[in-house]
Design goal:
The relative contact order is 0.14. The chain is α/β, with parallel strands linked by helices. Strand 3 (51-54), helix 3 and strand 4 form a beta-alpha-beta unit. It is built from 11 helices and 12 strands.
Length: 340
């Protein structure tokens, strides 16, 4: 039986590519039932495709110049038309519950593509269903093997860390405020990641400069540097305003460092999954009291076992994704037969 051709909405990996994407590509490429097609405009518009797998669809519309962005919008519209005309099944991984922060044209184009979704992949059991669209649960894979090649550091008592892109919804302002107002003696803060815009860059630089025992490295950091930051921290703090699925949380847990995250159904489920002492929760916006309470709780009841991440093995996730592609093709064929 010939393999089916599946195109993801991400291209060939680069040094800054999200490790989730790279590990997913490797996992599905190991399955002989499919041929993995990295995203390119040639693939999207010309090459034969059996399934399209959508992640962050707006990412393929990004461009440095107005002319580049215009060309990509035209190509994207043609791609959506091709998907619609030839009824190519679309599988969509629901990474976030909110729409991307893009302009109205890009938002309309993304909506047009995800509106063709045949099957949704949920990364968490708390992801709400969408009426009329079937869904399967495939948990976000861990990073244990991915980071296994790097040297780990010993945790520094009192050090809290944050690593990742600095965006408005990720609450970096709340983390800096909570740190500055904390009454916990001996705290230090390490922040690393590329700001989403010049305003965020300027704000973080100025705020950190005014805080003793705080440092910020505002750039993409290497994976070795990420491992050093995370493992040298007593606690990783993710002060997100909106949080559903978080690769940063799983990265910290994969490196056996406790996390402080918003109190919501997804993070409560994660806490139950990985075991006591690993996931600490704050309600509403992060405050100094919430930060201090988490550190006190961690020290009073530290984890006694490694976090349980057995259900997040990538070999299992790879097989489940290929199963999902085949299911989407079956659903799509069934829908075609039902058409008048």
């Amino acid at each position: 039986m010939p393999s089916i051709r599946v195109m993801q909405t991400f291209g060939a990996p680069r040094t800054t590519t999200n490790p989730y994407i790279v590990q997913l590509a490797h996992a599905i490429e190991a399955d002989p039932r499919i041929t993995h097609v990295p995203f390119s405009w040639r693939s999207a518009l010309i090459e034969p495709l059996d399934v399209v797998h959508v992640h962050w669809a707006d990412a393929v519309l990004a461009g440095r110049t107005p002319l580049t962005r215009l060309a990509k919008r035209v190509a994207f519209a043609l791609f959506v038309a091709r998907v619609r005309l030839f009824r190519i099944p679309v599988v969509r991984t629901v990474h976030n519950l909110t729409e991307p922060s893009v302009g109205p044209v890009d938002r309309a184009l993304v909506r047009a593509l995800i509106g063709r979704t045949t099957l949704r992949i949920h990364l968490s059991p708390t992801t709400p269903d969408e009426e009329g669209t079937p869904a399967v649960l495939i948990e976000h894979g861990h990073y244990i093997n991915w980071f296994g090649q790097y040297r780990k550091s010993d945790a520094v008592t009192g050090r809290i860390g944050y690593a990742g892109l600095l965006k408005a919804y990720k609450g970096i302002d709340r983390l800096l405020s909570a740190f500055s107002e904390s009454h916990m003696p001996g705290l230090s803060l390490r922040v690393a990641g590329k700001p989403a815009d010049a305003q965020t860059d300027r704000f973080v630089r100025e705020r950190v400069a005014s805080l003793p025992r705080a440092e910020a490295d505002l750039r993409y950091i290497s994976e070795a540097e990420l491992v050093t930051l995370v493992t040298s921290s007593e606690l990783i703090v993710l002060p997100y305003i909106v949080m559903h699925n978080s690769g940063a949380a799983l990265a910290a847990l994969s490196l056996e460092r406790p996390i402080l995250v918003p109190d919501n159904p997804t993070n409560r489920a994660l806490a139950n999954e990985v075991g006591p002492g690993w996931v600490h929760l704050f309600q509403g916006e992060l405050t100094a009291q919430g930060l201090d309470d988490a550190i006190q709780d961690l020290r009073a009841s530290p984890p006694t076992q490694k976090p349980r991440l057995d259900n997040r093995e990538w070999t299992h996730a790879g097989r489940r994704h290929v199963d999902a592609y085949l299911q989407a093709m079956t659903l799509n064929n069934r829908h075609r037969k039902d058409l008048p």
